[in-house]
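Entry 14. Ran structure prediction on the chain below.
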Amino acid sequence: MPCRSLALLIVLVPMAWTAADVVCAQSKAVPSAPVPIDPLVAIVDADPLELSRVAQRLGDRAVIERLAPKHKVEVRLAAIRAVPYLRAPELALSALTPIVIARDGVLAQAAARAVWSIVGALSHDTLESRETLAVDLTQVTREVTRIASLTSLRADLRAQLNAAAAMLAGMGFSATD
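Output, structure tokens:
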């Protein structure tokens, strides 16, 4: 009887090793396709010159579209950092303001900083040259003011949004119109 068990082991063990080798070989034989990296995410250290170059190449619409919640956090963060370098960054303000109240603190802080930066760089001449409608910025002013008044929002984010709302109001875009 012991010889029969030994004979079974001699036959079965090599079969198990062969099956394991086949599984390992199959997993090695199927190369995984490299995941394409978003051009904005590929920029090292959020270099402003590189962000500007890539944002110009992608275009305003493509960068603003990357702000949507359907994208990964790193793509959204890279897009937020690139927004001030768009041809018409004020068009992204309505997409940025909801991000300020999002659960992700890094995105919220970057979005608040971007809103403040964009509004600070606006002038009547640039808005006129880009044919930005006053109605659009009045709606943005209302939204920024509304979000800045939320007591649940971090104090630093409220301060940045209040400063942005004050700059917009100083340009004649009132939240009460």
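Residues 15-20 have pLDDT under 50 and may be disordered. Will compare against last week's run tomorrow.
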